[in-house]
């Protein structure tokens, strides 16, 4: 017999906490939204220890799933082959937010060792525009963040090449900081034209003295300190777009809301 105010006995059949199709979770939504990081190796490596993607997971813990879709060596031309697979127009729910971080490979110089990755700067801008337009077709509420290519430390790239290939290392730089800046400028211009936020990593990193070795591990890819800069700037941009982690709901009740003697109430 159950007395007034007591908690009913736990059911003998335990149902998994799956949100049925079409159901809403109110302030305690069961379906955790996604943030997708789309880019090249700098995105692919973002879940390494000290990576900016891993830090985003921590920032949005229990608020959003951070999904990495980074492809080492890819440029925007090759990225266009992926967008319908990664961001289908029907089926799964579109991401809450997406970062687009390409340009380091597009800016590889013609006539040098990485020229097959080169994409002319005008095409780079057009490709980014096609990616953004596709994401807008997926969702008119998705937060889309462009990230410029990072700066390039040409001496660092030369040291890296010598460490890898010795005397066979290339004699001329495959990338220059000046050219990376040209591509960064086109990324910023497109963001302005399409009224979406842009993280100008190319300029931001160069504000710090000694950025070449502080933020870049091989003249191009990021150190933990460089990853921290990207994380800080991306979080600031997401917050400015309304995605403040502290204001986003948990996917299930916080433990402080669960009554130890009658836990089922918190999940109703």
From TrEMBL:
Pfam families the record matches: Lipase_GDSL
Gene3D superfamilies: SGNH hydrolase (3.40.50.1110)
InterPro entries, per the entry: GDSL, Iah1-like, SGNH_hydro_sf
Alphabetical keyword list: Hydrolase
GO molecular function: hydrolase activity
Entry similarity comment: Belongs to the 'GDSL' lipolytic enzyme family.
Protein name per its UniProtKB record: GDSL esterase/lipase
Species assigned in the record: Urochloa decumbens
